[in-house]
Amino acid sequence: MWVALFLMSAALLPSRSAAQNPPPLPDAIGLAGAAVSLSQSVTVSVQDINELAISSDVLLTITSATPGSGPQAVIDGTATYNLTTNGSNKKIVGSLDSNFAAGITLKSLLQAPGAGTSTEQALSDVAVDLVTGFGQVTGTDLTITYTAEATIDVAPNGSGESRIVTLTLMDN
Amino acid sequence: MMRLNAFHILTALFVTILLSGSLPAGAQELRFNSGGGPITLDILSAAAGSEPVDATDNSTEIYWDANFGVPSKMTVSTMAPGQNFNLFLLLSVPDQGAAAQGVVQPEIQLIDGMLDTDLMTGIPSTLPGRQGFGILEYRASATVSDGTSTELGDDSHIVTITLLAQ
Amino acid sequence: MQKLKAAAVALVLFAGFSNAAMAQLATDNHTVTVEVAAISEIAITGNATLTINSATAGSNPDNATDSSTSYAVTTNESGVKITAATDVNMASGVTLSVNAAAPTGATSAGATTLSTTAADVVTGLGGVSEAGMSLGYTLAATAAAGQVASTAVTVTYTITN
């Protein structure tokens, strides 16, 4: 009789669904019905980021002179560069893939990012410091000013001499 | 044969109820449905001229059953001693049909030692709305002026989500 | 022992290359072209005044000279020359000539009679920029030329191949 009563009661009571009562997990902490919490370990890591991009090619044409003086230098400020670095104490150096013919000089002056110091330098196949002492900075459309000079000994060179100018971001 | 009386019947019922464990006030629940282990958000790139690109992680899904008998909410806090970089959390609830009812709060910035901040409010006390699934959408952000982990080390957070009566 | 030495040398070399590679954090390049065009420029300084107003009895009038003017030249071309021409020819019996000093590396043609036809005054210029070269004018007239009213004459100097 007792068994019958038990079986009848059990049949009448609603059963739990899996959605209502899924298996407990070790990271679920019951707090006596007041609240329940989860914790998760989250790490944020920031890598060293250094990016530099130059905008466009440049053509400088030396076309005139004052009589009695050498050819007039030509200045171009159309090229720009963008920069991102999250490190400290950086510099930019510049170099050519090969030197220009004797008598032709190409100088470069970069607009400095942030608090950097910029110096106009003649470019050659040996890298020279163009901007020093900056860090943790972004810069967009920073100007690259080129000055081309030629001595009177340089003969007309047709469509000109082309060189690849490389700018490199480095530790100071 | 023994005659059954009211006492016998009530006793049988009580025993049955005890054995089945189905008390009317069921346990509240908050658990990881997927993921939940340690995660790392790695900020590692930028376009030249721009700030670093944010890192995101959407790998953690939680499940809740706010069986408090009253409206409830979820909050978030974090501990991250010596924090240097920015971390944000948004609870994304893709399906707010019949289940997962409540008001999802805007993205929250996780700051070391912050007070518990509302993540989702107004969770009803009744089914099916009191139950739901949501994605923990983490977003890490840093500017160039924040520095790097090379110089400062990583930020280590213990993020705590709490489901409680509102 | 030999294997150990080789390994040590390899390790040092590898470290050296790694350090060089790590020093370049980011790089980009572009092409810069420098074109030098043909440039030839000449400029004259000053005007000359020549007056014939004396003679020795029994001889033609004395020549008048003026060396107060000069010229400056710049050319990056080679094998060019300077010619000179007047806008009007001299009256019959009157001769105007110029002796243009040559810049370095070039040759002066010496005293050259000027007319409306261009005449070489300096040849063999190339890759030169100089100023202050003198232009020595000489005006001569025969007695038969008679009295000639004052005339302004423009002398044009041209750098040409």
What does the model show?
The complex is a heterotrimer of chains A (172), B (166) and C (161). Chain A contains one helix and twelve strands. Chain A has one helix at residues 2-12, and strands at 29-31, 35-46, 50-54, 58-62, 74-85, 90-96, 104-110, 117-118, 121-122, 128-134, 137-150, 161-171. In chain A, the strands form three sheets. In chain A, strands 3-5-11-7-9 form a five-stranded antiparallel sheet, with no helix packed on it. Chain A has a four-stranded antiparallel sheet with strand order 8-10-6-12, with no helix packed on it. The longest helix of chain A is centred in the first third of the chain and has 11 residues, at 2-12. Chain A is elongated. Chain B is mainly β. Chain B has one domain (26-165): Immunoglobulin-like (Sandwich). Chain B has a five-stranded antiparallel sheet, with no helix packed on it. A four-stranded antiparallel sheet of chain B has the order 6-8-4-10, with no helix packed on it. Chain C has one helix at 2-23; strands at residues 24-36, 40-45, 64-86, 94-100, 107-108, 111-113, 119-141, 155-160. Chain C starts with a helix and ends with a strand. Chain C has 161 residues and is mainly beta. The chains are: A mainly beta (172), B mainly beta (166), C mainly beta (161). Chains in contact: A-B, A-C. The A-C interface holds A 48, 50-71, 79, 81, 85, 87, 90, 100, 104, 106, 146, 148, 150, 152-171 and C 23-39, 41-43, 71-78, 127-132. Strand 2 (35-46) of chain A pairs parallel with strand 2 (39-43) of chain B.
Salient structural properties:
heterotrimer, B: 166 residues, mainly beta, Immunoglobulin-like, five-stranded antiparallel β-sheet, four-stranded antiparallel β-sheet, C: mainly beta, 1 helix, 8 strands, 52% strand, elongated
Which SSEs are present, and which pair or pack?
The complex is a heterotrimer of chains A (172), B (166) and C (161).
Chain A: H1 2-12, E1 29-31, E2 35-46, E3 50-54, E4 58-62, E5 74-85, E6 90-96, E7 104-110, E8 117-118, E9 121-122, E10 128-134, E11 137-150, E12 161-171
Antiparallel strand pairs in A: 1-2, 3-5, 5-11, 6-10, 6-12, 7-9, 7-11, 8-10
Chain B: H1 6-20, E1 29-34, E2 39-43, E3 55-65, E4 72-79, E5 86-92, E6 103-104, E7 108-110, E8 117-123, E9 131-141, H2 149-152, E10 155-165
Antiparallel strand pairs in B: 1-3, 3-9, 4-8, 4-10, 5-7, 5-9, 6-8
Chain C: H1 2-23, E1 24-36, E2 40-45, E3 64-86, E4 94-100, E5 107-108, E6 111-113, E7 119-141, E8 155-160
Antiparallel strand pairs in C: 2-3, 3-7, 3-8, 4-6, 4-7, 5-7
